[in-house]
Amino acid sequence: MQKTFFKHGSAGNAYGTLSCHKSTDAAQRGVMKIFMQVPFEGSEYASTEYRAFEASKALSLDLDFHISSQIKALKTLISNSCQSVPSVVAIKYNRQEETDPVPGGPILFVLMKRLPGVPLSMAIFWNLEDSVREQIRQAFKCAWIDCVRSGIIPAFQAIEHVFWDAAANKAYITSFLMGEAPETNDIWRDSEWLAWDMAMTENFLTSLMDPNPHPDMSKRTL
What we know:
Blueprint lengths: L1 H7 L3 E11 L2 E14 L9 H8 L9 H15 L8 E8 L10 E8 L4 E2 L2 H5 L3 H20 L12 E4 L4 E4 L17 H5 L8 H5 L14
Antiparallel strand pairs: 1-2, 2-4, 3-4, 5-6, 6-7
């Protein structure tokens, strides 16, 4: 396990998303994302001292790109008044306790307001009426454009990272793993619906690489 740690020379990280509410008022609900350093494979059951040694390589609270990119993207979107992402209530950086997986390693808490509506999935989306699916696609397009205009292109394409508020006819994007600043050629392309599981086609890769931003969608399953 020492060879694995020294070979990579970087901290292992993980994150999870939890539903929560205020301890004094259950009606005030939120979402908590927790990002933290975790032990390298093989050292999970090592001594506290050994796992703390892994943390000694992380001289700051910076986590790896997969996590830091999400935090940076969310801060950028909020600072630019993006209306298509969760609102952040608080962000807290800390060090793990003696009984945590990597004593002294970084841990980060992000508390967000709970979004209205429901998180989508393939099962939910494709069991909706055709007209509702089209509403979601158009609302998602607006959300995607809103994010790009606010300085971040959503790169982690999966329908599970989309919230749908039917009452307001509005979509939200909830994850920005590997999110980066858009370039001038990052415009809306209808192939985004394919990438985000909101449309299907037999020639998936060919369709994604189509230079036409608005190709004929009649041969796609919508």
